[in-house]
Amino acid sequence: MFLLNQHPDHRTLLDPVDAETLGVAAAGTVERFLSHRRNHAATPLHLLPGLAAELGIGELAVKDEGQRLGLGSFKALGGAYAVMLLVLEEASKRLGRPVDVADLHAPEVKAVAGGMTFACATDGNHGRSVAQGAELVGARAVIFVHGGVSDERVAAIARFGAEMRRVAGTYDDSVLEASRVAKEQGWTVVSDTSWPGYERIPGLVMQGYTVIVREALQQLDRPPTHVFVQAGVGGIAAALAAHLALALGEQRPIFTVVDPARAACIFETAKAGRPVKVAHAEPTVMAMLECYEPSPIAWRVLSRVADAFMTVEDADAVAVMNRLARPSAGDPAIVAGESGGAGLAGLRRAAADPAMRAALRLDASSRVLVVNTEGATDPGRYEALVGLAPDAVHSSNPTSTRQGGF
């Protein structure tokens, strides 16, 4: 399924709050926070000339978040950043003076953090980020997961010292339960989705993601003409589309949001012109994108700065995992998890459809950026779908392929 953005707000100015949260200065703040993380490094940007030729486009660049902060996912940027910022704000209030990120490990700040508990619901990656952020600052984390989250992903979160709680039902059910319990206990919810009266913290989570675009624009010689980014509740797509619009203005790329066909809450929202909750269907292999209700603030942004919406099937996502693991024509091998390559799956589907190509003005001169949002965050699942262990794919690249392009 495919549609162009027909919303009356399309290409109008962002809400001032969103422009401030997701703009150039905000991304600079995130980058400054990251400079205090011991394992921080800009993630690689890979050029895939072989695949670009297959797709009939000029150039293809993949921003590889599978190596982000040791967590293997772009979500390492959001939850942990929000936790750190919230601790600093609370410490500033209690200590009666400004507290900067450089003071995060000071004893008096650690004492404040030690009395704080952060809670969230997760499909896996966001919870790891919140748990890691809590561990970094010395706070407590309680993470709620639904029945579809694998034991391997639960263990990956628990290793940061988080308390894990299973919830019957879907991701949306776990969001409600995390909110209910946190309210009863006086905990702080760090959610990557918003709801009425709860917008600032999801905005901070989205703010963390803006550094992906900031880095990519520094790594590229020229800005992209097209971007395809996957969506769950819409947070990463909104953050990236907004930052590109704010940083590049009229030179911004054509931005396409890609949903799993089995959990297409952003696509159906775009079709309806307002946030809608979609019915639960058969689970999608793209587990990190299995969300049935969009984040209202993400939709507020996407209604203005996204240009098109589309869906891909599970088979498309698995095909991308395998294509990236077994490259041709000199392309580097890339480990993409089940959800990681969904944006590239959207590009492949669009490139093969003459009507979509025309609607998106996709041609032999196009410079396309996609984001591999996760590596093999569930290595067993990855090997079952690809037939290769993640380490075997990584080892096929003898040197780093990080480079500029366009």
From TrEMBL:
Source species, domain of life: Bacteria
Cofactor section: pyridoxal 5'-phosphate
Pfam families reported in the protein's UniProt record: PALP
Protein keywords: Lyase, Pyridoxal phosphate
Matches recorded under CDD domains: Trp-synth-beta_II
Gene3D superfamilies: 3.40.50.1100
Enzyme nomenclature, EC number: 4.3.1.15
Domain Tryptophan synthase beta chain-like PALP: 40-373
SUPFAM superfamilies linked: Tryptophan synthase beta subunit-like PLP-dependent enzymes (SSF53686)
Classification via NCBIfam families: diampropi_NH3ly (TIGR01747), PRK08206.1 (NF006058)
Name of the featured protein: Diaminopropionate ammonia-lyase
Organism from which the protein derives: Bosea rubneri
